[in-house]
Write a structure and sequence with these properties.
The chain is mainly alpha-helical and 121 residues long. The chain is 64% helix and 7% strand. The chain has one domain.
Length: 121
């Protein structure tokens, strides 16, 4: 495997800055309904908010701040659409799978999920 492929593969393992799927699995065992508020706050800050910042909010800010407004708006809206899909999937408790999605916790097409999320009151 090339150095680039190895680096990309290793990087894709992170679900939030410095956090892997295994970190989440281990941490999530400490959470429960009505559990320790500090643990839930840590889960929110380090996993959810960390992911939102690193994958969506910081890239939007980087494009906005370093751009010359010659088409960057399209890129920003594309990232925002990906953010909306992520939030919709999170709220619905679903994961995206490119092929052979296994309902009810996986989806393959995001259109209905997206529309339901943005039209919910």
């Amino acid at each position: 495997m090339s150095q680039t492929a190895t680096s990309a593969s290793a990087r894709s393992e992170f679900i939030a800055p410095g956090k892997t799927k295994d970190d989440w699995t281990k941490f999530a065992k400490q959470l429960g309904p009505g559990g320790d508020g500090d643990m839930w706050a840590e889960a929110f800050d380090k996993f959810l908010l960390g992911r939102l910042r690193s994958r969506y909010l910081q890239p939007i800010a980087m494009v906005r701040d370093k751009g010359e407004w010659e088409g960057e708006g399209f890129t920003i809206v594309s990232i925002q659409c990906a953010l909306i899909e992520f939030l919709a999937a999170t709220r619905a408790g679903k994961n995206y799978r490119h092929r052979n999605a296994q309902p009810p916790h996986e989806y393959q097409k995001s259109g209905e999920l997206f529309v339901d999320f943005v039209s919910a009151r």
